[in-house]
Design brief:
The complex is a heterodimer of chains A (362) and B (359).
Chain A lengths: L1 E5 L5 H25 L4 H9 L1 H4 L4 H27 L7 H18 L8 H27 L3 H21 L35 H19 L1 H11 L1 H6 L4 H25 L13 H11 L4 H25 L3 H23 E5 L7
Antiparallel strand pairs in A: 1-2
Helix pairs in contact in A: 1-2, 1-14, 2-13, 4-8, 4-9, 4-11, 4-12, 4-13, 5-6, 5-7, 5-11, 5-12, 6-7, 6-11, 8-9, 8-13, 12-13, 13-14
Chain B lengths: L1 H24 L2 E6 L9 H16 L3 E6 L6 H12 L4 E4 L5 H10 L4 E5 L9 E6 L1 H15 L4 E6 L4 H17 L4 E6 L6 H13 L4 E4 L5 H9 L2 E6 L10 E7 L2 H13 L6 E4 L6 E4 L7 H15 L10 E2 L5 E3 L7 H5 L15
Parallel strand pairs in B: 1-2, 1-3, 3-4, 4-5, 5-11, 6-7, 6-8, 8-9, 9-10
Antiparallel strand pairs in B: 10-12, 13-14
Helix pairs in contact in B: 2-9, 3-4, 5-6, 5-10, 7-8
Classes of the chains: A mainly alpha (362), B alpha/beta (359).
Chain lengths: 362, 359
Amino acid sequence: MFKLEKRPSPSKPWILATPILAVVMTMLAGGLMFAVLGKNPFEAIRIIFYDPLFNAQFASYSRPQLLVKAGPLILIAIGLSLGFRAGIWNIGAEGQYIMGAIAGATFGLAFYPTESPLIFPGMVIAGALGGWAWAMIPAILRTVFRTNEILVSLLLVYVAEKFLASAAVGFLRNPEGSGFPGSRQLNRIDAMSNPELFANTGMHWGVVMAFISVIAAYILLNKHLLGYQIKLAGQAPRAAKFAGVNPSRLIILCLGVSGALAGLAGLFEVSGPAGQISIDFNVGYGFTAIIVAFLGRLHPVGILLAGLLMALTYIGGELAQLMLGIPASAIQAFQGMLLFFLLALDVLSNYRIRMKKGEATA
Amino acid sequence: MKNLTTVLASGAMALGLATGAMAQDDPLQVGFVFVGSINDMGWNTGHYHGLEAVQEHFGDAVETTFVENVPEGADAERVLTQMALSGADLIFTTSFGYMDATNNVAERFPNVMFEHGTGYRRDHPNVSTYSARFYEGRAVMGHIAGHMTESNIIGYIASYPIPEVIRGINSAYLHASEVNPDVEFRVVWAFTWMDPTVETEAAQALIDQGADIIMQHTDTTAPLAVAAEAGAYGFGQASDMIQFAPAPRLSAIIDDWGPYYIARTQAVMDGTWESGDTWDGIGPGMVGIGEMTDAIPEDVRASAQAMVEAIAAGEYHPFTGPINMQDGSAWLAEGETADDGTLAGMDFYVEGVTGEIPN
């Protein structure tokens, strides 16, 4: 029968081929699921993957929306990927995203109604600091008390969500909002808004920042000693220690960077597309970014492509609901299949499949 | 040759007629956007029943589409835009948080009519707002609760400290204390609209404090499940939750959006649709009262039913003076009824409710 044989090192061609294969298999399995639901699978797949990009009726609107949706995913995933490569598991980017948004919005609104060109840059810094500070909690607990950063960072998401709710109905509540929850509309206040930079492109400062982070991460990982240390710590922790890598420093650094980037994503979102602090401001970017990071093989360019692909399935998924009446849960299952097949196919990068002779007993 | 051209020409004409006829019979496209799953058995299921009512009422003349689980903010704006681009004539946005998205998209599609549920902003002539006077139902539930409690402690699971919820607490309290002056309200703020875990914990905490009636302004059946186990009573919220009848579920406040959705769809068909604000209660049927079960004594059922009818007929307003505010200062004088503006922005408790509204 078949036998799996571990490769000495992961196969390069397979590492590149598995994401594409995973997408193809998702289309097949997802198509089957849509067929079982009584929908035309070819039409569904076309609507999800093709229509947002090329349909004459929608594409001119939905194509720029890809960037709006992918921007925060890429920005957060780049930060997470650094830690993931070093074996440091920040699962709480969602919380850092929330805290960045709250910190940035609070900074901006504190100056309301002053109009100054310095306010928005200040908000950006406050946003990054907010996310960074929230990530420092698991980082310090890990380095000082050896608590598990996975649990601490994840649980802090729920704390952040409660804090968000109390901000939306409490200290950030719009005093002119008739008592309803939610802050002032930041994207309607010139000094605090993160507008679309070029009309009908979807480009805003958060998308620009996402592209910059991709380039910076690429340089860091390939040209910088720190990048080397990150990779070494993940692949051979003991060897890294001998090579002089300080694990505590690395933890503080990786959690700090991922927290700051998640905080930035939150700030750009709250001052741009979302527009205000509301009870349900966070929509899961911090969690989806984990999928994006792995879908992109923790590689900066891979993450860029994975973020765009994920955004495509969101936008196409909405269209599929609208046009074909496919339930939202089926779309979510479809997105889940993507990660499932990718992880399952990882076997092919790490193992060789060999035919075993003679022992075909069953 | 001549034959062929005739055939072609008549064919083309037939085609032209056909498309012309189709354009005329083109069904009206009505879109719905839901913030959660249509199977949540609460808020979203209620609105989905409204969609079904529209489809059933108009049959082939209307084509309904919907997108569920749409987060508020940028995602909502995108979904609404795509819906408008796909040819929707009328769009219902069924969550408060869609307020900005609704108005933004309405500005770009002046020929599409928008109906925003529970909001107050109508920035453009193609935006209407609508909501239900749930406090009317809350008054009836309070009346029943005041009669039914033996410990004189009524637990109340509130969601968020917003006017809608505060109004409900006040209305329930006023009518519970009217029939039972010793009644005391314990309010727990869940800071969620639906979360079975949180609601279970809140209900349990209230029962541990001695509450034997649980009222809820959250959407799942979890509090009723806790009440069933503890031998306490509760009420259905948003949907009938009849599976918990006759006890613990004594009655229910049911959201019934169907009649309004049908009326507004008809208005678009007739070309009579106009921007406006609708706040309907028991009378027009937007707020339904679930069947009162046998667990309620007959005389209480009768008095509660009388209240339902008086409210429906417009003879009784649940906020009729004299009513003082929590700090003892006067709010409504004898016989005075609350105006809609004050109710819409209600941010204070009435006299007798203990505790503070969190902020």
